[in-house]
Structures are given as C-alpha cells and as structure tokens.
Amino acid sequence: MASYEKLELEPFFQTIEELKPKFIQRLQKAISIPSVSSDESLRPKVVEMANFLVSELKELGFTDIQLKELGTQPPPVADSTLQLPPIVLGRFGTDPAKKTVLVYGHYDVQPALKEDGWSTEPFEMHYDQQKDILYGRGSTDDKGPVVGWLNVIEAHNKLGWELPVNLVVCFEGMEESGSLGLDDLVAKEAKQYFKGVDQVTISDNYWLGTKKPVLTYGLRGCNYYQIIIEGPGADLHSGIFGGIVAEPMTDLIKVMSTLVDTDGKILIPGVDAMVAPLTEKEDKLYDAIDFSVEELNAASGSKTSLHDNKKDILKHRWRYPSLSLHGIEGAFSGSGAKTVIPAKVVGKFSIRTVPDIVSGKLDELVFKHITEEFNKLKSPNKFKVELIHDGNYWVSDPFNESFTAAAKATQDVWGVVPDFTREGGSIPITLTFEKELGVDVLLLPMGRGDDGAHSINEKLDVSNYINGCKTLGGYLHYFGKS
Amino acid sequence: MASYEKLELEPFFQTIEELKPKFIQRLQKAISIPSVSSDESLRPKVVEMANFLVSELKELGFTDIQLKELGTQPPPVADSTLQLPPIVLGRFGTDPAKKTVLVYGHYDVQPALKEDGWSTEPFEMHYDQQKDILYGRGSTDDKGPVVGWLNVIEAHNKLGWELPVNLVVCFEGMEESGSLGLDDLVAKEAKQYFKGVDQVTISDNYWLGTKKPVLTYGLRGCNYYQIIIEGPGADLHSGIFGGIVAEPMTDLIKVMSTLVDTDGKILIPGVDAMVAPLTEKEDKLYDAIDFSVEELNAASGSKTSLHDNKKDILKHRWRYPSLSLHGIEGAFSGSGAKTVIPAKVVGKFSIRTVPDIVSGKLDELVFKHITEEFNKLKSPNKFKVELIHDGNYWVSDPFNESFTAAAKATQDVWGVVPDFTREGGSIPITLTFEKELGVDVLLLPMGRGDDGAHSINEKLDVSNYINGCKTLGGYLHYFGKS
C-alpha cells in the first residue's frame, strides 16, 4: 500500500523540486529579517517578520489571518512598555469532512553577530552551491520549517490539488525567549480559533545525527535562572578599591561554582532524586538508535564527550537533567584587559528537565541551595536569585496515528524507516498544545543534528529543506487518510 | 618664606582663574575624542587625540615636538597589524641654568558606553554648573591633569612670565592597556630626548578622600592574567548538548572560584608569604591620615567595606595585595536568557602587587595554582593561563626636594598641609622613569577619591581642575628654586 500511495504523491514531490529556486528565495527573505526576540532593540524586526509571514499567507490563499497581540512584555525587561511580538494565525481550508492539523512554528531567532565568528553575515543567507547548504541565522531554527509549510501549500496550489486536511498555522515570535504570552493565547483560543483541531505538528527540532531522519516523541524542559549580586553603587577601579570592598564577582563565581561539576553532575541537592528511574525496557530502546560517540564529536567539533558510548550519551541527552552556565551580565566581557570591579553582576544558568521533575519543586531546590551557598559567604553584598522562564518536559506515544503517518511519509521521501527519538532541547509549547487542545502532538524535524541552531554558521542542507517540504506534505496526505 | 613666595605666585593664580572658561573648553575638546586604547576599533581615535595634543603644544610654543611610533601591538590582539598609538614628546625651554622637569600623563582612557549606566554621554563633557563638576570619560583619568600642564604654560604665556624650569612632556596612549611600548621608549630616550631631566612628575592618581589634598609616594603594581578554556568547535545549544559534552564555562567558573574569598583573602598558595612584614613604625604612619570607613562607603556608593576601621582599609589599599575577578570573554553577557554553551571562554583577573612580591615569581605561583586546579577537574577541554600585562609596585621618599616643593604649592593653594599617602592603583611607568632616568618621581594628584576613574559618570570637580592647575604651576616654581 505504501508504494501505491507513494506513486500518488510523486507529482507533489516533483512540483516541490521544480519550485526549489523559489523556495530558496523565500527562505532567503525570511533570514534577511533579524527577528531576534531577546534583543529589545530588534523588536521592530520581529514584528516585521510577522508581517512578512502575513503577506505570504495572503498570497497563498490562507483565510481568517490574524495578528494576535500579547500586550507588554513582563519584567525583567529594560523598556517596561515593550510590546510582545504578535502571534500569526491563519487557515487553509475549512472542510468539516477533513481532519484539521494545527502547525506551529516560530519566526524569532537567537542573537547573532558576524563578530561571534560567523564566516558570512548571519542575516544574509549564504548559499554554498558546492556543498548545497544554506547558511544563515534561523535557516534551520525555525525559519526553514516555517516557510516549509508555506512551500507545501504553494506546491498544492501549483498542482491544482486540494489539501487533504484543513490546515491551521500558529507562528510565534518569542520562542527563543520563553514563549512569553503563548500559553495564555493557546488556552484562550483552544475552543475558539483552534476549535476542531485534531492534531498538532511542530517542526522545530533536528535529526539526532546527520544521516538518518527521525521522529521525536519526547523533549526535555528548561528552567532558566539568574543570580543577581550587587555591591557598589557603580563599577569601581580595582587598584583603588581592590582588597577593601566585597566584590560581587567574587561572590557570584563562588556561588556558580557550586551548581555543576565538570562531568555534568548537578550539585543542587534533591534534583537527581526527582528523576524517574530507568527501567530495563527503556534501557533496551537505546540499543536500536543510529548514533555514535563520533557523531557527537563531529557535531560538537571537539572530543569533549562526557560519555564513551552511544547509550549513555542518548540517556544524558534525553532522560537525565543537565545544568549549563551560560554567562554573566554586567562583568567585563570584551577582549583585552579592563581593571574594573563590576558593581552588579547577573549569573545566568539553566537546567534541562525530564520526567518526573516538578518545575516548581525544582525552583524551590535551586533557590534554597543558592541562598544557602550565598549565605555561607557572609558577604555584605545584596543577593537575589530568580527564575527567568520555565517550560516543562514532554513525552508522547510514538505509535499513534500521526507518528505512523509521518513515518510513512519519511520512508517515501528518504527511503528509510525513521528512528524514534527524544530530544534534549525544549519546545515548551508542545506540552501546552497537548494539554489545552487535548490532542496528540507530533515533532517532525527538518534539519540535521549538526545544523548549529543557537551557534555560529547555522545552516540547513538544501536536501533537508527540499525533502523536508516533501515529508511535511506527505505527512498531511497520510494523516488526512488515516 | 612660604607666604612671601605665595604673594609672588598670586598673579599666576589670578591668571588661572581668568582663563577658567578657556581651560574648561580645552578639557571638553579632549573628552570629546573617545581615545579608548583597549578597543582596537577605536585606535584611530587614540591617534586623533595624540594629534590634538601636538597642535595644542605647537600653539603654546613647545619645541622639538615629536610623535614617537612604537610599532605593531604584540599579541594577544585581533588585528595583528594594529599599530600602537604614538608617544607625544615636547619641550618648553632649554635653559641649562634651570632644572628640567619631565611631566608624564596619558591621553588614552578606559572604555565607556552610555548603556553602562552613564547619566550623560561619556564622550561629551557635561558641565553641571550647580555642582560645579565636569563629567566625562577621562575628565580625571587622565585628560584633566594632562591639559592641566598645558594650562600652566598658557597662564605663564599670558603673564609674560618665564617658566622657572625647563619642561619636557611625555604623553602616552596605552596606559589603560599596560603601557605597551613605553618602557622601551623611556629606556631608549633616557640618554637622548630625556637627557638632563632632573625630576619626573606624574599627575595620574587621586586624593584619598574628597576633602584633603595628598601627595603620593607609593603605588601597588598590577599583574593581569587570563584563563582560556576551550571545548567545542563553536557555541552549542544547551538543550542538544547539555549533559553530554564538557562545558568550558563549568571548568572556568570552578577554577576562578579557587582564586579569592569574599573577605578578599587570596587563595593562591605562596602569595601572602612574599608580602613585606608590617613594622611598628609603618603601622603608626596610618594613624595620622585623614580617612574613614564612611568616606570609603561614600566613594563605593555602598556599605560593602571589608574592614571596619581606617587603618585596616588603608593597609589593604596600599600595602597588601588584592585579587579582582573582572569578567569573562566569550560567555553570554547580554540581558535576558540565551541557552548557549559557550565554546571558548576567557576569564580575566588581576592581582595588585606590593613590596616584596616579585612579579615573575608571582606569575609562577599563579600558573602553578591554576594549572593544578584545572587538572583536578579532569576535563577534556583545552586550557591555557597567561599574563596579559604586568607592572611593578613603587615606593619613594616623601621628604625629598620634589615632595617638599609640591607640599608648599599645595599649602599655598588649598591652605592645608597635604597627607602623604600611597595608592592602591598602578602606574607602572613610575618605576620605569625612576630606574631608567635615575631621578626621583613625584605623584601629584589633581582629582578626588570619588571621581569614578574606570567607572560610570567619571568626573572632575571644577575646583580640583582649577586649583590643580595652580598647584602644578606652584610646584614648578618651588622646585625650580630648590
């Protein structure tokens, strides 16, 4: 049956190939808008990106297009009147006889500067024709997949084909900054704009490696914290004040050093105890997955793996928590030497969460540990620890209708059965959709494990982009018939 | 005799007052050039500042004006062809019957951005007429004193007075970045351009507090280090890689946490043992100095003093070493949340040195300790620790001719006997001049202890600027006659 259906899909696949130049151009336009949600000064660009999507949706024949405003951004924020970027909603088809698929993606991106070490301008797409790779911030995370859905519609329009499902799109502009405002919107629209949705599909993650497509049924959550330590009224000269005032950096570094060990062990008491025990059945699942230490090393560009075998790597990426120290705001961060005693420093770290860590309980443990460690220092400096944002972990059933449809499409396009995987990253909205709409969520990745999301030289292979569009469309066909 | 001489100086003091508007304008011009030596992209502005000084010197009648080029800046540096800013040399008078005073100052400044928290643009001088204060980067460190010397000449020219000494000026543009190239130049010119110099005067430090002028006979040195830890080939996404790779930030924070305690105690073994023991005689010297915990708190804008009495504060500022953690290059340093695993992080710290710490021996202890601490981590990351720059401590005789002359001038202008103090900051060139020229060095400060050198809202009180010019000129008169 699969081969019969595959034949049926051939004209669609062919049309995607024909439209390739136009699809690359569409991604180029999207990348050229620096929609960095964490940079308040770039907020107008995030809004510009929303408007770009609206005009694309209009042109493709979407209806009921709405820009949902989310109000001002809550603290901590420099400009207290800063507006959150809008959520873009749209429909393609409203046939009650068809299933309705809600497609979620985000149009904001991580920060990027050429000076960070990019080979080319991050916000000008670079097409390396020899390698057949598209470089640019957002290429894989998440502009490639977002415009991928639009490409699927364009191919159908060109063919004069009816879409086998009703499609609802929901594109947000704050995913890289905690999806502020989205939870409330989803809750509010669950019985309104999103009424009748049968399934939610998200294409915002990656293959595990670089060769084999995957479908993803689990994600880690993420609780992001900051430790604020404040002393002098302004930055001081270390010659004049060194040795006679308590320096906030000294305290912050001490406290941050008590959070995690070089081997990745989280040192905050009680966190590991909340992690669900590994069953024998689950342990065996990792045997089949196509992955290796070498693939991790290739993706990280180093030999810094903490584990010497595939199974431990996968477990620590998927089912164990991790703690990363991201940086310090307020300290000297330039090149060269500056003899400053920073007056106020803010340490940033996050914990990736897994079953059965309870987010609120984790916050308590974090606050308690850090407060105790700071109090041990007996410092006259002022101290505060706070959660910047959180998002829960998620685990689904990889054998339900949508996963089965996506597996068929993947096999048609790539010629292999995908691996069923979990992911280390967080897409907090996954859980919100599942809870508020009461439907299954499918994670259907487009890019590869070495795409460099959140890193310099972020890329998307043209083959992943084009075959990804085919897979997204094929999935809609199989799911529409299931 | 002092009062007779003071009468003699009255016309000079009066002329300084008359020229006040012009002198403020001169400082304004100097502040408007952002001559930040640590920022490679601003190097042309540092050169522009050198050219500004040259044109001022010409207009005032200086002769033999030279711009001494110092070649390319040695690593670590981003642009390997970057030229060091030139040293500005000039003479005023060459009468063999007179003494010759060499005046040193620096025309580069610390970095400053409005966003750092400045109330006004750092590179546009703001004259608060109500408080009678001049705000701007470099106002007190060290553009105020540098143009102060020019003002002294201008007042003499206006009066038609002969300068009682020959003056040689030596203005450098790399003081805030380790005075690269200056030592070699001083050594080279000691028997050439600087031949016949009888005394060196430096106005590049501050009063201890805000009320009483001081003369300074001692300085701490400064050894500035960086710890480089490098793992992945590029920054990574903490969701995908958290828990499975060794993170450079984790290692760096661990190592940095072993350097100093909240109470200021240096934890590197062997450093304290090198410090000269405190004699009873020296201990008594601190009794007389006008200072208090309250003055420290006012200057730091906080109640974060590590010591509860004047004497301990002064000892820890002047005669004990201190270690400050300045910041981290390569980690996330912005506001908000970024879920990045930084690939390469560079921790910056410096140690203020005092008698009898031997700089090379200190480097050895630092490298040994940090290497041991890193090795304890058993991390697969790459590690390096290096000295960025060093400068030795300095102690002089506060009862020699030049200190006596400066004390008289100070008393004439301010009506009080100055305190004889040491300083916590470093002016490495002090020692170089003393050694290479074989003459005494005097530190004659212009600004107050709360001027905020290296901090936001750096300022110079107009009274300190104008009375400072009088003091510099008065000093030249008394020294010329001594």
Automatic annotation (TrEMBL), chains A, B:
- Which cofactors does this gene product need? Mn(2+)
Q: Where is this site: Important for catalytic activity?
A: H237
Q: Which residues form the Peptidase M20 dimerisation domain?
A: 225-374
Check the record and name the InterPro entries matching this protein: ArgE/DapE_CS, CNDP/DUG1, Cyt/Met_Dipeptidase, Peptidase_M20, Peptidase_M20_dimer
Q: What is this protein called?
A: Cys-Gly metallodipeptidase DUG1
**Source organism per UniProt:** Candida maltosa (strain Xu316)
Record keywords: Endoplasmic reticulum included? no
Positions with a binding annotation for Mn(2+) 1? D141, E176, H454
What GO terms are given for molecular function? metal ion binding; metallodipeptidase activity
Q: Which GO terms describe its biological process?
A: proteolysis
**Keywords on record:** Dipeptidase, Hydrolase, Manganese, Metal-binding, Metalloprotease, Phosphoprotein, Protease
